[in-house]
Predict the 3D structure of the following.
Amino acid sequence: MTPPGLAPPPPAGTAALRAGAYDGAVVVVTGGGTGLGKAIATEFARLGAAVAVVSRDPSHLSAGAAAVEEAGGTAFAHPCDIRDPDAVAGAFEAVEDAVGPIDVLVNNAAGNFPVPAEDMSPNAWRTVVDIVLNGTFFCSRELARRLIPAGRAGAIVNVGASYAWTGGPGFAHSAAAKAGVKNLTETLAVEWAPYGIRVNGLVPGLVPHEDETAAIAAVPGKHAGPENRVPAGRVGLPRELAWAATYLCSPYASYITGHTLVVDGANWQRRHTVQPPFTPVREQLGKGPFAGGTLPDAGRTR
């Protein structure tokens, strides 16, 4: 008999916090127009926040704003390349002019695609690290530079990945950048706690969503029986990550800072008593033997 696994979550539209928990708050979600970022933006909106969606892609901006408004929140969308600190400052200024001082920042924007390290171009490395690590720092710093002089408290959540602990074959650029984000989270939590600014991390597990990039969706075997690869016996749902984000930024988590919360059904801790046969990453990705030279690759973002 197969064990039942973890119970499914409450239905969509259910809030983890009391109604109106974020009334009057202004929340910025980078990459908030697609996937998990959109789910997080929507949940903050459902709890009463004005939500600013920040993205480089106009279609993502419109999709995120529409989702926020459908959930009953006030939406503001602004284009921004988070790799550019001046652009970040301009975007935050536009948000505050439109909807008021920012209280919460969710650093969700990222770039990622699978590639063996020997095939990775310098541009691919720089693009992913620039978005994931540098962008997270630039956005976090910009918010702190606004909160500290004003004597205002705030909360930051950085969306990470479990391979920040384990390494990520096939994703050397993203894994290294996410490890940096985890360390940055812990460092900024200590530096900014005296100012009332909390900084936490949030790591999603296997959480399928409709906006998954084509490169990641195309990994061989990616969607073959995902529930069988998780101790929980099921995949996660975007709203489960969104509930965690709204909790971490709420007064109910007022003594939690510098922590990274993993929402993955215990998947990253699992170990085999006898390890299965090792498969090199080139074979996992369906790549032929490395023949030298530089293969074209480009940064993909969400």
The chain is about 35% helix and 15% strand. The first strand starts at residue 26 and ends at 30.
